[in-house]
Amino acid sequence: MLERARCLDVGDPLKEFRERFDVPEGVIYLDGNSLGCLPKATPERLEQVVREEWGRDLIRSWNSAGWIDLSSKIGTKIAPLIGARADEVIACDSTSINLFKLISAALAMRPGRKVVLSEPGNFPTDLYMIEGLERQGLTERRLAPREALADALDGDVALLLLTHTHYKTGELFDMAALTHAAHEAGALVLWDLSHSGGALPVDLNGCEADFAVGCGYKYFNGGPGAPAYAFVAERHLKAARQPLTGWMGHAAPFAFSDDYKAAPGVEKLLCGTPPILGLAALEVGVDLVAEIGVDRLYEKSQALSEFFRQCLSERGVVLDLVSPTDPDARGSQLSFRHDEAYAICQALIARGVIGDFRDPDILRFGFAPAYLRFEDMAEAARHLAEVLETGEWQCAEFRQRAAVT
Ligand SMILES: *Cc1c(COP(=O)(O)O)cnc(C)c1O
């Protein structure tokens, strides 16, 4: 298996990109879907921003280094990777905050309708942000399992909010079909692309999506807590009004007027002063993804995950796969259900194979293809097989839950 893996690595068109990341020695990193690896260019870029732009040029850098436009600039770079136009995307705030802004905007655009529809088991923050608005009396949360979503789209639904690639199972929604169904019912759609952006091709405009949000620190390798991004379809840019009317979203922030007037474009999604250090790191990650291309990334991640499954099966490992078996029906991850998923995950981490655990019983492996090799798949499968065979996960040390799982 290892030999076959090495042959595949030799023929891998993305093989030179591993060098562009700082992948720690002795680690097989299968968690790039949670926190992407550090691009080697990032520390250098941050050093430059800190020492020259901040340290030497100080306040002048808002103009001279283009800080003031950095959110928009990164938005224009993310746009083609998610099927959007350059003026429809902006990098700002966190995914959670962008959800709040865009759910609110959508509700205001559908007066007389109050329901935000989602699925149970959607990423918690998506559901909680709807709940927060519900507590303020601004909406009513409705959850329907995926097979019942189309039926739940009645005349009360203002917005359908879904995560394109499910964070636990990796299952993909049919973005075009659901967007169409929502529009037929008179509702708007907001797609959470956190596990899709930078991992697989997304065609927001091809699907006629209304709104989208996504994460900067997962497949975009922007670093811990990196700014997120938000998309508003061009046809809604005029009507969409977001509630966090901070000065940076003003049409003329430096006019210092007493009254708020939203910027005409997607800049209206800005709220406060942008975090330049975070944005600078994000830009490096986005540039790398753009250089490689999302089509090539997805193709390789599918090959990696299929090869991983093959290695497991050749080692006789039988695990309950909760991700779709068809690679076209899932994002860049594989998830398995096991009662001892937590302890198994810890035992693997002790061996240098970093995947993650999702409560209550999911063992999740992400395949960020820019820096993973087929060799890593063969080795990870070997470690997993050994952990299961030896039962080493039963050690007490692997059962202690840390704060972040
Ligand atoms: C990771 C993730 C988020 C993260 O939101 P933050 O505000 O960055 O913490 C949101 N939604 C989904 C679907 C995610 O996977």
Automatic annotation (TrEMBL):
Methyltransferase among keywords: no
Biological process (GO), any one: anthranilate metabolic process
Enzyme Commission (EC) number: 3.7.1.3
Residues found modified as N6-(pyridoxal phosphate)lysine: 218
Keywords carried by this UniProt record: Hydrolase, Pyridine nucleotide biosynthesis, Pyridoxal phosphate
Cofactor(s) needed: pyridoxal 5'-phosphate
Residues noted as binding pyridoxal 5'-phosphate in the record, renumbered to the chain: 95-96, 123-126, 163, 192, 195, 217, 247, 273
Top enzyme category: hydrolase
InterPro entries: Kynureninase, PyrdxlP-dep_Trfase, PyrdxlP-dep_Trfase_major, PyrdxlP-dep_Trfase_small
Keyword Isomerase: no
GO cellular component terms, A-Z: cytoplasm
Pathway: Amino-acid degradation; L-kynurenine degradation; L-alanine and anthranilate from L-kynurenine: step 1/1; Cofactor biosynthesis; NAD(+) biosynthesis; quinolinate from L-kynurenine: step 2/3
Pfam families the UniProt entry points to: KYNU_C
SUPFAM superfamilies for this protein: PLP-dependent transferases
Reactions it catalyzes: 3-hydroxy-L-kynurenine + H2O = 3-hydroxyanthranilate + L-alanine + H(+); L-kynurenine + H2O = anthranilate + L-alanine + H(+)
GO function term, MF aspect, one: kynureninase activity
Subunit structure as annotated in this protein's UniProt entry: Homodimer.
Functional description taken from the UniProt entry: Catalyzes the cleavage of L-kynurenine (L-Kyn) and L-3-hydroxykynurenine (L-3OHKyn) into anthranilic acid (AA) and 3-hydroxyanthranilic acid (3-OHAA), respectively.
Similarity-based family: Belongs to the kynureninase family.
Protein name: Kynureninase
Primary gene name: kynU
